[in-house]
Design a protein that fits this description.
The chain has 369 residues and is mostly beta strands. The chain has helices spanning 2-23, 151-155, 257-260; strands at residues 51-68, 71-90, 94-101, 110-118, 123-131, 159-168, 172-180, 195-205, 210-220, 226-237, 241-254, 268-281, 286-299, 304-317, 329-343, 351-368. It contains three helices and 16 strands. Strand 3 and strand 4 (110-118) form a beta hairpin.
Length: 369
Amino acid sequence: MKTKQLTYFLLILFFPLYLQAQEDYTIINSLNPITDSLSQYSHPPKEINKIKYNLYFDTRADYQKKITNDNTDINTFNLKTARFFLTSSFSDKVDLTMRYSVNDAPSNGLEFAYLTVHLDKKWSLDIGKVITAWGTYEIDYNGADLYIQTMVTEDLELCAPGVGLEYKTDNQAFYLQTVKVYDQFAAKEQLNNALGHLLQWRGSFFDNKFETRYGYSLMQHDKNKYYNWVTLGNRFNAKNMFVELDWMYGERLVNYSSNIGIEDNGVNLVRDNAISLSSKYHFNQWNPYVKLMYNNREDLNNQSTYHVFSAQAAVEYYPFDTKILKDIRFFLAYDFRQTSFEKSLENLPTKNNHEIFCGVRWLIPLANK
């Protein structure tokens, strides 16, 4: 009931802004249909002594069907995404970035909210609940733009209270971040006394034909132990397409029982090793998309291992070319996923999953100034 009340309140609050914006609306730096990532959300152009903002409503609605070894597990419709997204600039020194999920309200509604203070043209400081500075391109995507993900990205902690310092040059950026660590990494007795330290390097070379998004992280478990994470992303760009190659490797605390359909065996220390290769091509109003993934998870407590191989094919269609409607897309995606087991899980049969998604995705521009 609280969720419905909050939804009505937000709609009442923002609806007058929406009507005002429709009178003379221009989309500022809208998402590129090929690269719908978190970093593609653009702030309004800065003007000294003025407040500028962009307000969006982020939506995705799906039909989903999932079949495992000839048994239908899922056959339903979902509102995958429903959230408000705000970017704003206060003169040329301070930005505010915030996203609030109506689906997860009220307890987990606020996904991130942070201030960016521009110290000069090269240095900036982020303060608040920040987007955690992992590497790779898959982690950088808005989750509503992914149809399948690696087992790392599916449940990794992607936002946390903290602070980050960034230094930018013409074609590179170095970002150092310290954040609060939650129970995926911290011991129970250390939850209020554990920090994660992340270093991210982003580079662009050969006229943006090759880009990098590399990360290294130390996530504190207790006073004497840290979990190491390496997250490396590479992107190769051509005129109307890109290819992305990501690798993620590290240890964390996870209860994976429901993921593979076994009796609850509690939270265990696992070592994840995932690689993803994807490509998208854009022509006219169509985006065909393919993705291959290999995931290996080793349970270090129970000496068990399972592997997940996945292949996906999708097509996205943008039917409109007017400014306010051009980000609407319809999509159809098919995913094949095979899970195999070793060591203490070797008695489990191999699982073959077939999954279909179809629906509509729209980052709705509500208002700007």
